[in-house]
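2024-03-11 09:14:02 DEBUG pipeline.ingest accepted 1 chain
2024-03-11 09:14:02 DEBUG pipeline.ingest length=166
2024-03-11 09:14:03 DEBUG pipeline.predict start
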Amino acid sequence: MKSLYKLIAFAYLISLTSMLNPAVSQDAEEPVTLGLNHMGFSVSNLEKSASFFIDTLGWKKAGGRPDYPAIFVTNGSMFVTLWRVEDPETAVAFDRRKNVGLHHMAITVRDLDALHALHEKFKQTDGVTIEFGPEFIGNGPSTHMIIRDPSGLRLEFAVPASRIKK
């Protein structure tokens, strides 16, 4: 399992390096796809998942579709659409080891203090399951934690090494 985390950490650091190093992107032709526009999640409890993003993380409601039903949320730089499944009572929970689909969504956190404050807040948030608290990604210093929101969405909160004061 540690080797898997090291591989994930390596891939994560490589992707950060290429995103943060303008020399890397200047030498290559710009891809036709430019970045993540939004994430769309199917959720079993629309209100609790929306409340998690809005009340727990401090995001804002950006609209919705009552007929679907759906609620759209944003933190000003990321946009997430939450779509309620047709029948929450019979919905099948995602299993990251057995289902093809989104393994998790990783969200960058401002700094280590904010990551630890979120961890404490998640402990008090109804319906949130903490898979693991703040720990190094690989050998660090990048640090992360993974939780599940009230509908079971796997969310990672990460502080990259570039945001950790030495």
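2024-03-11 09:14:41 DEBUG pipeline.report The chain is about 30% helix and 30% strand.
2024-03-11 09:14:41 DEBUG pipeline.predict end
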